[in-house]
Amino acid sequence: LVLVVDFGAQYAQLIARRVREAKVYSEIVPHTLPVAEMLAKKPKAIILSGGPSSVYEDGAPSLNGELFTGEVPVFGMCYGFQTMAQALGGKVDATGLREYGRTPVTVLEPGTLLAGMPTTHNIWMSHGDQVVAAPEGFTVLASTEVTPVAAFEDVARGYAGVQWHPEVLHSEHGQQVLEHFLWNIAGCRQTWTIGNIADEQIARIKEQIGTEGRAICGLSGGVDSAVAAAIVQKAIGDRLTCVYVDHGLMRKDETEQVERDFVAATGAKLIVVDAEKQFLDALAGVSEPEAKRKIIGREFIRAFEGAEIEVIKSAPEGTKVGFLVQGTLYPDVVESGHGAGTSTIKSHHNVGGLPEDLEFELVEPLRELFKDEVRAVGAQLGLPDVIVQRQPFPGPGLGIRIIGEVTRERLDILRDADAIAREEMTKAGLDGSIWQMPVVLLADVRSVGVQGDGRTYGHPVVLRPVTSEDAMTADWARLPYEVLEKISTRITNEVKEINRVTLDVTSKPPGTIEWE
Ligand code: XMP
């Protein structure tokens, strides 16, 4: 275990991922966690992240000397580098000189940390203050035009640091810097491999659920719930029941694909609830986006609870379905304040059958994992690419991609157009480079067109291809004209209700990715 101490930088999660890419398990802790509690976790090393503060500000987060007793190796980057220098008796100055962005660094002495790296290479900087004198016992390894001490190490005590951000892709040899620290200075072993991750999670879930427990898992068609279910299936076999609510708002053939591929890959017991009519009846006459979302959410809970009751009723005599599987990921855990341990969830049943509240203990096999690890574990467990590489798709499905009232007929039109767009994107090899491409049906808009010899009066669709890192911000994707042409021609030829294809060229912000 390596702890990444978060000083409030947006980089802490990225650092934790890079450490894991070096095959060493890492967790993020807030800098406010007392040092004694950090050490109680018995970390093999501690990494201090960058942060927005200056070590000079009043109340700037810092670490007291307790951390530097020589017991645990420590690596500092950016702000963490400066706090470390200060805590160990070096000198940090606000020289008024700043460095931002790509910066050439000169290696003065490679030492262990920078071994094998070119004498000058480019790294990514973002700082105002600088370390002007390294603490005693440290070797200065590198400098830049502005920063005399840009990297240092004290291998005997297991301390090292760099002023730059080795975790960002723009820093050349950044991953190597981290690996040299982890493997060669801190002596961490490379045990965090995909095979091990899967085995560890399966063992953990076995222990949590025990030999008698029964669990239920909601499948959405997305990667997280599918991988979570696959792990639990490996742990407890057919004491797991998966439930997939078909709300009728999925894309063409998607429900059949989930049913077929998921079951084939995992052998899991799957109940598909056909709730299309229930959802469409509830959505009839509604076109306001928030109202649609609320209805879909409410009907989903109803349908899922109905299935829960069936599963509970059909469990063998004397056994209890006490566990609910959820696909919570590590970033959710970090963002919600690092809560540890197991929690329970109450689900109130107002559907006929069982009158009382049901209490489930949560099973969260992905709580420690980042998304890319989830995909890798999924592939390791035999799930096909259509599931593990699936692009994001909103829970309310096509219900929020029809602008206007949602009806069966409109859904079928959109499904046909969307299927063509997805097929052409895949053919062009673009699935990996775009984040997602919603196809939106402007169901209440009609425009005049001409096709063959006749006038048409059909609906437009909007293509919304975007690139993004995390869906918080996004840019419209510059798709090749030939691909756009192919999609447009095919949609207008093959879907008779659609006579116009338009392209959304708005970034996020100000636009959101979805239209509703
Ligand atoms: P927006 O439209 O807010 O979307 O820019 C950001 C990302 O979230 C997806 N999205 C959802 N995902 N339930 C989900 O699971 C939802 O209700 C939902 N709404 C939007 C959207 O597809 C994009 O990836």
Automatic annotation (TrEMBL):
Active site per UniProt: 78, 165, 167
Positions of ATP binding: 220-226
SUPFAM superfamilies: Adenine nucleotide alpha hydrolases-like (SSF52402), Class I glutamine amidotransferase-like (SSF52317), GMP synthetase C-terminal dimerisation domain (SSF54810)
Gene Ontology CC, one term: cytosol
PROSITE patterns to which the protein is assigned, alphabetical: GATASE_TYPE_1 (PS51273), GMPS_ATP_PPASE (PS51553)
Pathway: Purine metabolism; GMP biosynthesis; GMP from XMP (L-Gln route): step 1/1
UniProt cross-references to InterPro entries, sorted A to Z: Class_I_gatase-like, GATASE, GMP_synth_C, GMP_synth_GATase, GMP_synthase, GMPS_ATP_PPase_dom, NAD/GMP_synthase, Rossmann-like_a/b/a_fold
CDD domains, A to Z: GATase1_GMP_Synthase, GMP_synthase_C
Keywords: ATP-binding, Glutamine amidotransferase, GMP biosynthesis, Ligase, Nucleotide-binding, Purine biosynthesis
GMPS ATP-PPase domain span: 192-390
Keyword Ligase: yes
Entry GO MF terms: ATP binding; GMP synthase activity
UniProt-listed Enzyme Commission number(s): 6.3.5.2
Reactions mediated catalytically: XMP + L-glutamine + ATP + H2O = GMP + L-glutamate + AMP + diphosphate + 2 H(+)
UniProt key word DNA-binding: no
Gene3D superfamilies: 3.30.300.10, 3.40.50.880, HUPs (3.40.50.620)
PANTHER family given in the database record: GMP SYNTHASE [GLUTAMINE-HYDROLYZING] (PTHR11922:SF2), GMP SYNTHASE-RELATED (PTHR11922)
Summary of subunit composition and partner proteins: Homodimer.
Record function comment: Catalyzes the synthesis of GMP from XMP.
Protein name (record): GMP synthase [glutamine-hydrolyzing]
Organism of origin: Nocardioides jejuensis
